[in-house]
């Protein structure tokens, strides 16, 4: 009970389901506008946002529906699909393409108006708590469009994928030169902060701390927030347990593979000596006769 109380003394965690919609929901859309503009700096300016239904239905009743965290339309007709993802998923990019394709299909004009094929811009924005590429632990911002693979010329600028990988963002608070850096730092550390600090731009982030105090929540909202934290905590505990189990299983597998390798070498050497039967070799090496036959077959293939 004391642990929950200690956590609730901090600001609302922006990376909880409740916190994500609290900070970036329609009542606080200025935060989402500021965030998107820091992400799209030099590419596009979001002037205003209109929030629309987060649910995207299939082409027919039998197809699965898609539910976004936030779904908005800009003043110029551009569409934003904004998500916060805690856990990794197989085929994440396939999923992102499916989501944007579903939206584009809905936006395509029908009848005579559709003859021009003109579409509005669509942006898929995802803040991720997992690594997209485990071989690259430094890349924290992915930005993709349809480009020519030979000269990187952008062929279609109206479809964009923006992914922020928080585990790869490790800049210290003294090295946050851009607003995007500051947003990523805030997302990782907001729950640890009690007030606006001087390394964050006051014009952009003052409202985050104004609305982030738990005292602003009604009793019902506070209960919803606690439930959101519990779900996040359960996920973190499950992930930690899975990693521990995988590590233990890996150690056991490594030991087993080591024993198997040693047995293979013993059998191989006895076969090369060509002085013993399969049964005798199996007895000497404490393995099955089938294992001896497999090793012998392998040696024959190499000849």
From TrEMBL:
<dbReference type="InterPro" id="IPR010106">
    <property type="entry name" value="RpnA"/>
</dbReference>
<protein>
    <submittedName>
        <fullName>Rpn family recombination-promoting nuclease/putative transposase</fullName>
    </submittedName>
</protein>
<dbReference type="Pfam" id="PF12784">
    <property type="entry name" value="PDDEXK_2"/>
</dbReference>
């Amino acid at each position: 009970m004391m642990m929950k109380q200690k956590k609730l003394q901090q600001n609302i965690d922006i990376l909880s389901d409740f916190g994500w919609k609290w900070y970036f929901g329609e009542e606080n859309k200025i935060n989402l506008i500021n965030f998107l503009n820091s992400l799209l700096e030099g590419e596009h300016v979001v002037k205003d946002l209109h929030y629309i239904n987060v649910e995207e239905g299939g082409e027919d009743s039998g197809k699965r529906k898609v539910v976004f965290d936030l779904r908005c339309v800009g003043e110029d007709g551009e569409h934003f699909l904004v998500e916060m993802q805690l856990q990794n998923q197989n085929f994440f990019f396939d999923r992102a393409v499916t989501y944007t394709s579903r939206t584009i299909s809905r936006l395509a004009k029908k009848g005579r108006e559709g003859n021009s094929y003109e579409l509005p811009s669509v942006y898929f924005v995802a803040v991720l708590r997992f690594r997209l590429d485990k071989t690259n632990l430094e890349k924290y911002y992915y930005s993709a469009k349809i480009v020519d693979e030979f000269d990187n010329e952008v062929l279609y600028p109206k479809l964009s994928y923006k992914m922020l990988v928080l585990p790869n963002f490790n800049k210290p608070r003294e090295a946050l030169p851009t607003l995007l850096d500051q947003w990523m730092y805030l997302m990782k550390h907001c729950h640890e902060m009690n007030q606006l600090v001087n390394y964050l731009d006051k014009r952009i982030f003052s409202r985050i701390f104004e609305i982030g105090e738990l005292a602003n929540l009604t009793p019902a909202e506070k209960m919803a927030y606690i439930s959101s934290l519990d779900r996040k905590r359960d996920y973190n505990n499950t992930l930690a347990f899975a990693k521990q189990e995988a590590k233990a299983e890996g150690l056991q597998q490594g030991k087993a593979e080591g024993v198997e390798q040693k047995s293979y070498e013993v059998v191989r050497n006895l076969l090369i000596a060509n002085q013993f039967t399969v049964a005798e070799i199996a007895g000497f090496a404490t393995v099955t006769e089938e294992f001896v036959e497999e090793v012998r077959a392998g040696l024959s293939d190499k000849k």
